Amino acid sequence: MSDVVLRVERGLGRITLNRPRTLNALTPGMVREIFGALGDWAGDDAVRAVLIDGAGERGLCAGGDIRGIYEHAKAGQDGPKTFWREEYLLNHRISQFPKPYIALMDGIVMGGGVGVSGHGSVRVVTERSVVGMPEVGIGFVPDVGGTFLLSRAPGELGTHAALTAARLSGSDAIHMGLADHFVRSERLPELVEALSEGELDVRAFAEEPPPSELAAQRRWIDPCYSADSVEEIASRLATSGEAAGEAAAKELLGKSPTSLKVTLQALRAAKVLDDLGECLDLEYRVACALLERPDLVEGIRAAIIDKDREPRWSPGRLEDVDRLSVQRCFAWLGEGELGLAVR
């Protein structure tokens, strides 16, 4: 069976990510198929709405197929650039889709999984949802429009989530603007059936989510993460007098120093950009630059290939990351630009 199952059922365009053994990680082929289907369905009067979900019991999608990215990057090949270009174009198409695009964000929703759900018009989380952008842990940055979403979260919650790779509950995701409705997982089959019957008001199945635990921690998150440098953020966290703040400092300092600094600058830049297209353009520049740096290959090796969880970052300390090297990650790509901001 295909890695992504596409069909139209009673007027509902269905997208099911179908790689449960890899937690539905996105491949280039899957991205192309979804992009094409959305193009077809946008102008098809027989399709009222689109629904995306994931096969298996574990979640919607764990992100992009980073093992494939590792193989290409290690060999010095440009395959990842093509994948990111097509993935980001898909993220933008989802955001512009003219009909309801309903994402069932049940279970694990990480990285690229946020990209195919978080830009939809109707985003449903459950009590099982675990949402996050963990890229700094593999020598990368939040992408797939993650800078757009996280930079617009209340206060500095998005900065915290990006720099620590925090795992967000469904309630956290709603509070941060990454999701819209909380529906109990046991009611999802009933919801899908109603959608197939033409009932598109998800609110009939939603309930008030539990309080967001992350929202309650803004008392220390906002003052700590409002600093202008990652070094100062880490220092404020470590001396915050909050056990959770001290734990966040330790978590942060285990990530790629280069990724942390580039991510902070990307988030600050994204916050003042006008739209998702501009943020995706920025992310593409950064992604292409980081492909040439050693931390991406090393981060994936430590997390996925050897699984020793002991990445050897280069440079290994925040203070050794050259400011100019960070700035170069945002350099204009000329003819290689993604170009969504001008479309």
Automatic annotation (TrEMBL):
Keywords from the UniProt entry: Hydrolase
Positions of transmembrane segments: none
Top-rank lineage group of the source organism: Bacteria
Organism phylogeny: Bacteria, Bacillati, Actinomycetota, Actinomycetes, Pseudonocardiales
EC number: 3.1.2.4
Listed name of the protein: 3-hydroxyisobutyryl-CoA hydrolase
Chain ranges of the Enoyl-CoA hydratase/isomerase domain: 13-330
Pfam families: ECH_2 (PF16113)
Keyword Hydrolase among record annotations: yes
Gene3D superfamilies in the cross-refs: 2-enoyl-CoA Hydratase, Chain A, domain 1
Keyword Metal-binding recorded: no
